[in-house]
Amino acid sequence: LVEMDGFESGGQVILIAATNRPDVLDPALLRPGRFDRQIAVDRPDLKGREEILRVHAKTKPLSDEVELLNYARRTPGFTGADLANVLNEAALLAAREEKKVISNLQIDEAIDRVMAGPQRKSRIMSDDERRVTAYHEGGHALVAHALPHTDPVHKITIMPRGRALGYTMVLPDDDKYSTTRNQLLDQLAYSLGGRAAEELIFHDPSTGASNDIEKATALARAMVTQYGMTEAIGAIKLGADSSAPFMGRDYGHQRDYSENVAAVVDAEIRKLIEKAHHEAYEILEANRSILDEMVLQLLEKETLNKEEIAEIFAKVTAWPKRPAWTGSAMRIPSTKPPVDIPERVVAEDAPKKPRRVKKSTSSE
What we know:
The protein is mainly alpha-helical. It is about 45% helix and about 5% strand. The protein contains twelve helices and three strands, in the order H-H-H-H-H-H-E-E-H-H-H-H-H-E-H. It has helices at about 25-30, 45-55, 70-75, 80-95, 105-115, 125-145, 180-190, 195-200, 210-225, 260-285, 290-300, 305-310, and strands at about 155, 165-170, 305. Strands 2-1-3 form a three-stranded antiparallel β-sheet. It starts with about 25 loop residues before the first helix and ends in a 52-residue tail after the last helix. Residues about 245-250 and about 355-364 have low confidence and may be disordered.
């Protein structure tokens, strides 16, 4: 601290530091005159991911058919290290197959490996387990496709990867920086779509939905205690930060509310989960024939891409939108729509007129 803000001026010295935990720094470090500027370096956006992929692709022989922008869209939330790992993994796969260039097949497999782990070819499932997995993943995909506020379904597979027997990839086409209540409710519904499909078809759910239930419960709890998206609790933040232990901090969720409020929180979480579960069940029941067709395709091909999924789901009954919600019966939803987004005028596309220079006629 003395060197940073001492008696002698060090005008030619610039001090730069980096940390992953700015919340535990000594406030004396951050006061004016020491670290004057704090620059947050977040995960790269769509444009950043594309440029990072281009940097790492310079030293690798890519096929002409590879479009890096498409893979930047498929990797939201990836860091630079993740993207480098994807291309390195794709290069290794191409080398093992004795290919001269890296094609889309290798990059697709590399993304799956980074996201879900390598294929477990040693795990041989019975026909009954494959069918249950196909209905489970098909349930996720169909509910996600039918709901109005979900992202596109990019891929479905029933090939075991990591700890999963199969998985459904639902990804946005563009980066998102905030999420609405309807989008969160749709996430809850399609998270439970696999469990609902098992209940609808086999009347005997399996343990395959345990991770889905865990994620749905965490999301519902966040909606109640952090995002203020229930009428019973309202726009109130409940509970202390549950970050990992560091610098003597306690681990786990710290409750700072009464037993009565805790009971209301638990009831609201259960209500959100039950409503989403029932919504997913109704969607699958209304589109049963399409679900069966999806399962037959999965059992035959094991993996379906975005185009194949869209073809199967072409006749899915779109689910109606939910009624307007303001968080209270006292706040009546406005019937006046928002203003239209003005069209952007791209000045660069307009041809620039040559600038005329007026010549002087004076003797000077």
